[in-house]
Amino acid sequence: MSPAMALNEQRSKDDAAEEQIEYEKGEKHLCEKGHIRAVPKKYILPVADRPTKTVKDSNVLNQNLQLPIIDFAELLGPNRPQVLQSLSNACQQYGFFQLVNHCISDDVVRSMIDVSGRFFDLPLEERVKYMTTDMGAPVRCGTSFSQTKDSVLCWRDFLKLLCHPLPDFLPHWPVSPLDFRKVVGTYAEESRHLFLVVMEAILESLGIMEKEEKESVMEEFENGSQMMVANFYPRCPEPELTLGIPPHSDYGFLTLLVQEEVEGLQVQYQDKWVTVQPIPNAFVINVGDHLEIYSNGKYKSILHRVIVNEVKSRVSVASLHSLPFNSTVKPSPKLVDEDNPKRYMDTDFATFLAYVSSQEPNKKDFLESRKLL
């Protein structure tokens, strides 16, 4: 190779490395650098994976999806048996439901969304302090699923926070905006309490009624894991070419999502992608992989994705809940018998981390790897 060719090759490598570093700083950073008129190549999905909205696309329903609505106040009242049946139907048929009249005030929810948006408005110099590829870090700011492994990047930035026990993790959280720790700490505690009440109802809806077993499981949840994920989806000049988050299921038992009143979440329903219509002040709650394992397949974690748009940016906050990170998740003995044999291997969080750290996440591949039948 001639010296000139070698120099050109080195320059190409340097340019590629510099470009990769820019991508790793996040989608917000790319937008801040200047008005983006086209989606960069690194974000463009293969044609078959793009979120086209045309009526001709047989994989997309040209309508919004009204998820089952569970009234939290009714769940705690005399109509609890009927609401538990509705809850069971929602977890079996949709894997999702919207929870209304819950116990968290509108001010707490609005403040959580507001402070998340203000975090992403901070200068890059502030946000970069928390950028890491360590999936076990108590605070992790980044973009896509994995900047280092994803062949196509996602049109989103995220901030992930470990939340429980709160005193252990709060000192690691960002100190800017100034009210960040107070607002997010309050929201983390209240959303965790809501999870515990809903999870107890989920156990009852599965027929886990014996006091000793239910108390044992709930005690594990009391000491369980909680991770908060704040997502920022900038406006996108060509939303038909990319996704905010590709199709995936969530790893835990339940995910509690709050979002701005901007459409974005899509759920796979009857093998078609449908957009979830946001309900003001409601939580979107979905079954995670661990609940599918625990229920021995009765309740399903459903593929979902996030689309973006060219008119408005969007902020959402997901709170993911499960057993403690060192616990083993397995089908409940109550739900395993001769007619319903054990369908999943026992698993733990370390196994999940090892799996997702070794390859590019793809739909429900991890859960599929745990199936026995």
TrEMBL record:
The gene is Vigan.04G336700. Involved in the regulation of shoot development and salicylic acid (SA) homeostasis. One of its GO terms (molecular function) is metal ion binding. It is found in: Cytoplasm; Nucleus. Keywords: Cytoplasm, Iron, Metal-binding, Nucleus, Oxidoreductase, Vitamin C. Pfam families: 2OG-FeII_Oxy, DIOX_N. InterPro entries: DIOX_N, IPNS-like_FE2OG_OXY, IPNS-like_sf, Oxoglu/Fe-dep_dioxygenase_dom, Plant_2OG-oxidoreductases. Residues 223-323 form the Fe2OG dioxygenase domain. Belongs to the iron/ascorbate-dependent oxidoreductase family. Signal peptide: none annotated. SUPFAM superfamilies: Clavaminate synthase-like (SSF51197). GO terms for cellular component: cytoplasm; nucleus. This is Fe2OG dioxygenase domain-containing protein. It comes from the Eukaryota.
